[in-house]
Amino acid sequence: MFAGLDEVVQFLDVFKFNDSHIEYLKKQMPQAEPEFFEWLRGIDSKSLTVHGIPDGTIVFGKQPLLSIEGPIAIVQLIETPVLNLLNFATLVCTNASRMNIKSGEKVKCIEFGLRRAQGPNGALTATKYSFMGGFVGTSNVYAGMLYDIPISGTIAHSFIMSFDDETNIDSHCHIKGTNVLTRAKEFREELKWTNTNDSELCSFVSFACSYPDKFLALIDTFGTIKSGCKNFLCVSLVLSELGYQSIGIRLDSGNLAILSQEVRNLFIETGKKYDHDYSKLTIVASDGINEDKIRQLNADDHQIDIFGIGTNLVTCEAQPALGMVYKLVEIEGKPKIKISEEKEKVLLPGRKKVFRVYENETPSFDIMLHEDEEDLISANELTAYHPFDDGVTVTVKSPTRIDKLTQKLYENGQVSFKTKTIHEKRTEVLEQIEVFDHAVVKSDEKTYEVYLSKK
Amino acid sequence: MFAGLDEVVQFLDVFKFNDSHIEYLKKQMPQAEPEFFEWLRGIDSKSLTVHGIPDGTIVFGKQPLLSIEGPIAIVQLIETPVLNLLNFATLVCTNASRMNIKSGEKVKCIEFGLRRAQGPNGALTATKYSFMGGFVGTSNVYAGMLYDIPISGTIAHSFIMSFDDETNIDSHCHIKGTNVLTRAKEFREELKWTNTNDSELCSFVSFACSYPDKFLALIDTFGTIKSGCKNFLCVSLVLSELGYQSIGIRLDSGNLAILSQEVRNLFIETGKKYDHDYSKLTIVASDGINEDKIRQLNADDHQIDIFGIGTNLVTCEAQPALGMVYKLVEIEGKPKIKISEEKEKVLLPGRKKVFRVYENETPSFDIMLHEDEEDLISANELTAYHPFDDGVTVTVKSPTRIDKLTQKLYENGQVSFKTKTIHEKRTEVLEQIEVFDHAVVKSDEKTYEVYLSKK
Known about the structure:
2 copies of one chain form a homodimer. The first copy, chain A, has 16 helices and 20 strands. Chain A is of the alpha/beta class.
């Protein structure tokens, strides 16, 4: 899922060496001629033209995502920042999209990764692009403010632990005249759940009294089923009496599949006893969730409604780096190649544009054509060649639809495509996943091929 | 290797909610009372006292790195930023330190990770803390400028590929009246290396003419031994005639151990033929280097002088996240505990200070004492208890040296310890590694224990 183009555009807009940069470089390169630094002072991105694939598009290996034309020295100077800005954004957006797809239609994913990201800015990038990849919200409040992304979170363990048996919460545990703690203890008595932790109950009551319509409790501090879930239900029964509906609970340790089933059953049973429908209370689960765990949880028929995913989302633990590269493919009209003993590492020479060929409204394969070959796509028959397997070709007759993915993105220091908000891109990402071949994006069963023209 | 304290101090110094933050939060929490937002507007870090271990210290699991005291709501609000700022800094500093130790005394490590970090700021953090961990430089020029870290790099493949056989470099390939290209071709003829790539030779000559005393060539574009290394030597022979000494070459693909040996042999042989000592020319190697590869390269008796490490340094691929946590351990003088079914996950309650006990000037173990137990360390006999293995104790009689690691770091909005530059910290890191038990830090053979007092 290609992402990060906004960041590249922002970088190009401000790309300029200032006096302090030049001074530093002069000290580092005493042998360089003064004219070099004068040249450096004068350059900016106005001499560059960028073609590429708009972000939010599903892309594949070997495709030129951006193609940057201009004086070679300037094109070369921006290599590393461009790679830096695209690599992580694309990686984390793809990772989020994969996790979201694997979670299935009924389960939502929220990003919880701030504490494990590479600093505050790494975290902001992770939040922004995991939202674009299909996550529904973040626990990063500042990111929520900057990008207008829904924020969400639950109580911390330390909030619960800050209470104890003797904490006097009497003065602030009333709703509409009812002492919520006393009433919750009455339900506990009635339900014969006398072994739940008292300080935990106090903390839940205190939270519920502040946010009676937003009560979501973290239940694993003193035992998920034997204390947390039961205390949550006692407080929820009081809230129900008073006309409020609790939101639900968060699991943060243990066997999440089994615990979520036990919690769901206890919700249903307890609700029934008092004539409330507690079957739809939300179960949030966190604790090292990644793609493998999601797969296992699905197989174990979990009862979770929301995954809170942090570490494995932002560090992309399954593949911590995306190996996007920036290569010279053409100079003064001449195609350029870099040889390697590994076929797959040989650079595909020449300026290429990417087209997506559809069959029955489903993407069938992509083809890269040289700049001067665009008319091939309007011919009656299109033959596509595998880039590495000699002799492997595909021929399509009168394809119903071919999308040109490569667009002009930046020219003369100006953006030359319709920019979109992160919300619009997110919608497009989700729509594309539905249109795309199910076997490719939802199950990894099938490889999607990227072909070349004969030339 | 504890790192990131500078970032935490900088954060504490500016911790304050401004009007736009308050406005955003009001919209997000319409049910909260106006007094809450007034309170929020008034808070800052002045009410916090931070004790902890200065950064640049070797630390171990279960130790309280920072201990933050103050009103619980404020202490709680800063949890996530503090973890964010410490986790990655400590992880990458530790990772760099491990790689540097594994590389051995003769080999230096340079950070090449900008393109794979989590954005520009993630990259800056990686550069700063890998330098502190013992790296000698970076390819990130901006980080070099900000932190006064030596910058270093080599030619890019695209520089080499931008030349071709017909590129006319005659007008700028002279040094002291000598046509370097012509003379290099004469050496090539003499050495019967006629199959080297001409455009590569042109690119090397062009670079050497601009930087005759900084000639370091990337040699794997058209074949490392058959072309790159030979072209490098032809140009170096011209430079030697003219009174310049080349720096060396960079390997970026293939079997780095074998290639470095072949290159070293070709250096020595060729130097001998012309009476130059080429045995000390620098061999830089990059290409997915990590701890495992370093171990393998050492076993294969490589001839590399400098490792350029990018991806696996900044993404900390061997362990992409550090699981530092922030827990409530004491409230109003009462110790607090969080129970878990896994013994190792049980929180150690109470405010603890860390002491390092030496035997024969080598750290032997660490012990955590409660605040009010400091006099234990001046007693004749100190008994230390294992935190999880009941009955495991160590008793030391009159230890020669006990260092108190925990210091007061921040109070009343002010730093209360002697801050150091990144260069000073780097020196301390390297010195500590020498003083520390060899079996612990250099070979992973031995576990270093962290004990508790009986209390």
